[in-house]
Write a structure and sequence with these properties.
With 342 residues, this protein is an alpha/beta fold. It has helices at 3-43, 45-52, 55-61, 70-82, 99-118, 138-154, 169-181, 199-208, 231-245, 248-252, 264-276, 294-302, 318-327, 329-341; strands at 86-91, 123-127, 159-161, 188-193, 213-216, 257-260, 284-289, 307-313. It folds into two domains: 3-61 and 323-340, no CATH class; 70-316, Alpha-Beta Barrel (TIM Barrel). The chain has an eight-stranded parallel β-barrel, surrounded by seven helices. Helix 1 (3-43) packs across helix 13, helix 8 packs parallel to helix 9 and helix 13 packs across helix 14 (329-341). The two termini are 16 Å apart. The structure holds dihydroflavine-adenine dinucleotide.
Amino acid sequence: MSKDTFTKRRAAVPISILLLILSGLLYWFGETWSRHTLLYLSKAGWARALVGALPVAKQVARRFVAGETMSEAVAVTRELNSRGMHVTLDYLGEGVSNRKEAEAARAEIIRLFDCIAEERLDANVSVKLTQLGLKLDHRLAFENVLAIARKAQVTGNFLRIDMEDSPLVDITLDIERRLREEFGLANVGVVIQAYLYRSEADVTRLIKSSTGVRLCKGAYMEPEDVAFPDKADTDRNFVKLMKLLLGTEARAKRVYVGVATHDENMIGATKAFVREQKIDRAEFEFQMLFGVRRELQDKLVGEGYRMRVYVPYGTAWYPYFVRRLAERPANLWFFLSNFARR
Ligand code: FDA
């Protein structure tokens, strides 16, 4: 046996144990526990080091990630545009640990806006504030996002600020409000998570200020005092918020809504409401993640709805990938079976 093969086999032992624990959890405790375990692992540095080093993990992650470089993201965007889809590009990264990383992310995202303009892509950009240094220094994150939003404005484009875990919701909404009110940057929008109890109040405020909103269910691990523990309640709230965001007041305020879900019930409820209220299809769009429910994406485009695909790229794929595993246990089986085949 070569030294290389020996090293790989030795590394495979703790990883196999980790994966065995995960599959055991999934089998014995069901979806809720495995979701919680995966969401914990998405933040754990040791798990990132372990799984991030696995070539098979990187290969499976490719299902959800366009590639590691901007040019790979451009190629995927072009292909989606040719199928009638809009795109939002996301340079992967979150929770950076120093200023240098935050500034490097800012530089990459600014280049990304230039690239979208030069390549004439139909794409805007999504960003996470912790990638720009929010956990290090609020001022640093603000300066970084301000520079990015200005770049979006001069290139005639739009910046979406993704929503992260609940302790960051207030500061995220506040930063977006300052960009709009103090710097006149109306080309910035936010994300609302239907699993949070507070979201109805936030939506009401965002409608009054004509802010563009992406509505999603929410992808993080949240305690019961801030988020609905039951999926059925989150789904009910999603429909309620969708109706507010597409309602008469929101339309009068020209709020543009991204209905971000792969759930056919949520999509069906949105279509029914739009039909009932005779809402123009240009007033909203559906949004889905790259690599998820591709056939449904094509179907909605075929039916004449606007569809935007969230396309992440970069090397920091680990937490994004593990959140995608947490959303659907079948993804975990897919990962495990690929691993077992090696
Ligand atoms: P749900 O989880 O109920 O899934 C419905 C069905 O969709 C599943 O049964 C399955 O068929 C399919 N599906 C869903 N997820 C899948 C996956 N990962 N792999 C394969 N199939 C899957 N969250 C957040 O907290 N902050 C944010 O900023 C964003 N941004 C964002 C942008 C866009 C464009 C999308 C589509 C989603 C987000 N999210 C997000 C993630 C969101 O909160 C949520 O976790 C996922 O969209 C999954 O929820 P669904 O609404 O799809 O429903």
